[in-house]
Amino acid sequence: MAPPKDVVKIAVQMVGAIPQLIELQQSKPLAAVLKDICDAWSLPNAERYALQHADGRQTYITESNRGEIKNGSILWLTTSPDQEAEGLYIGIQSNNLGVKSDSLKRLADLSQDVTFAQEFINRNGLKQIFSIVEEGNDTGEILAHTLKAFMELMEHDFVSWETLSAAFIRKIVSYVNMNVMDASVQQLSLSILENMVPSSRVLFELVRKEVTVDRLLTHLQVTNTQLQLKAMALLIALLLAAADAERRDMMDYLRERNIRQFIHKNIIHSSEPLGDEMAHYLYVLQSISLNLHERRMRTPMDPYSQEQRELLQSLRQTAFESESETPASNFSTERRRSLCAKEFRKLGFVNNSNPAQDLYRAPPGLLALDNMVYFSRHTPNAYSRFVLENSSREDKHECPFARSSIQLTLILCEILHVGEPCSETAQAFYPMFFGQDHFFEELFCICIQLVNKTWKEMRATQEDFDKVLQVVREQITRTLSLKPTSLELFKTRVNVLNYSEILKLRQTERLHQEETLAVPVLELRERLKPELLGLIRQQRLLRLCEGTLFRKISSRRRQDKLWYCRLSPNHKVLHYGDVEEGVHSPPIESLPEKIPVADMKALLVGKECPHTKEKSSGKQNKDVLELAFSIVYDVEEYCLNFVAPTRYEFCLWTDGLNMLLGKEMTSERTQTDLDVLLSMELKLRLLDLENISIPDTPPPVPKPPSNLNFCYDFSHAEQ
């Protein structure tokens, strides 16, 4: 007979005692349960004890979390959190350095538990931690344990970062600014400052003032990758918290200090592999830098601005006045206006009498003008060649420089996501971005020449303008997807991908599509689908068995904490648990927590997940919504919450979990994989039919003959 739902069978252990096997009634008060356990071992003062999970993070059992206890769980009878907090509160004040160090180390471990952290903070324990730091008498291991304990206690958000004293903050800053200091202390200090920065404007200004950008750049140049990572994290936190003007100033200073070249040489092309966290920070730095163009992109041209009018006139003067023997100033006003209008028309402006009107549209706004001026000043020969070459063509075949530049600027803004908020989890950055100052402008210079080249290859007319720009967009996106490491390599590859190559690619894709739409082929596809879906299911389960490293993300910041989840080889249990940085594939035995697949009830994704409902609904969380999923399990319907590192991993896990729940795979990746496998299989099956057109309908079966007396009679032949 099955036990009642509110009863779980567990084992309780204690050092030096024979374990107890008990049936825990969930409806029974925890104090009464502890009393029974203590009585069985003849222990007085049951209120001094508590139950704790023996595996994993060893969290204390409370009335609020006791529902997480499962059948077969092993618990420890240990000192209650209030007794532990009291003992450690006294221990960290000891004059004996050994006792003090051990107490602080124990405090750092126990502070991960929310129940203990609450008890310790209620005893004004943070004040003692502040005293240890502010007095400055302890260094090395003791100081590292102190800062680690402080970080763990602050993680629970019981205390606001704004309550920190000025003396404490100055000490933390001093550890970062010291030339000679224990690396672990500096790493923790940088993490503390990183948490402080987004908490309030006052703390941001304080950290920005006390920790200079130069100091962070010094930490970026060390060989210790963890210290390098923490310094980059603080730099990114400062940039994200800064106002637009402050961010612009900081980026200008970083450009002066050649941070891009340093990152390109010493981080991207380092002998050490680039970690996910550093890849994310490089993506954010790239995004912040590109978003500096947003203000100009969203600002239309002001026809009354003398500066903007002069920039516009400089385009005409650079292209034509050097060619003219007679200065335009010698002509009459009417003659000069007519000449200028003619030259602006040659430049490719639609409104040649008032070219400023072409730049009223925002985006791309003034950014298009900036790009044209940059092109004319930094590559004057290419600029003059573009304009003069098209001036000599017939009117309908000339490639309009200004119109093309305006549209190309808009295309580049869309491809590079200029003006869009940074993703919280993305890691996709372009290595060539960090190898080049004025990346956006230099990329424009390459692509505007590509426009002219493609225009000539297509023998385009004014009516083909949109078609040409569509081809150019395709050339750029296809080349960027190859992740070229430098602009020179991008230029080489994008020029190789000429119009004829684009046509070949399109034709191949179109022929493949037409071939696969024939009725017999469609029937064959349907027959092959079940077998190939079986392959995909097999791959999904194998991927779940390999497991994935997930990050814990809070509403405040990107967390450093990692956890790993994998499916058992027999597909019956999900194992998971916290892991340290650098562990990529922990053995299944090291993952203490587990969920039987039979207990899984449902899979939630996106906005349905409980951990996304707790977060704010800002634009910056859109990417988290796209990567979030949760498993609902057990009778009480607990949730295990995930945020996948990539969309690919999200698809693999949601497909695999849906299969374990007996449901269909619904991710977009399933359809993509199925299409690829079907395409490969169909090509193999249809190899013998190459260059043979497949009819839409099968050939008709001929009618049977009127009689079957058409066999040859050999007997007559013998006569």
UniProtKB/TrEMBL annotation:
Q: Which GO BP terms sit in this record?
A: actin filament organization; apoptotic process; cell motility; phagocytosis
Q: Does Cytoplasm count among this protein's keywords? A: no
Q: Which domain of life is it from?
A: Eukaryota
A Pfam family this chain is assigned to: PH_12
State if Electron transport is listed as a keyword.
no
In this protein, which residues make up the domain named ELMO?
A: 307-480
Keywords from UniProt, A to Z, are:
Apoptosis, Phagocytosis, SH3-binding
GO terms for MF: SH3 domain binding
What InterPro entries does the annotation carry? ARM-like, ARM-type_fold, ELMO_ARM, ELMO_dom, ELMO_domain-containing, PH-like_dom_sf, PH_domain
CDD domains named among the record's database cross-references: PH_ELMO1_CED-12 (cd13359)
Role, per record = Involved in cytoskeletal rearrangements required for phagocytosis of apoptotic cells and cell motility. Acts in association with DOCK1 and CRK. Was initially proposed to be required in complex with DOCK1 to activate Rac Rho small GTPases. May enhance the guanine nucleotide exchange factor (GEF) activity of DOCK1.
Protein name, per record? ELMO3 protein
**Source species of the chain:** Crypturellus undulatus
Q: Which gene encodes it?
A: Elmo3
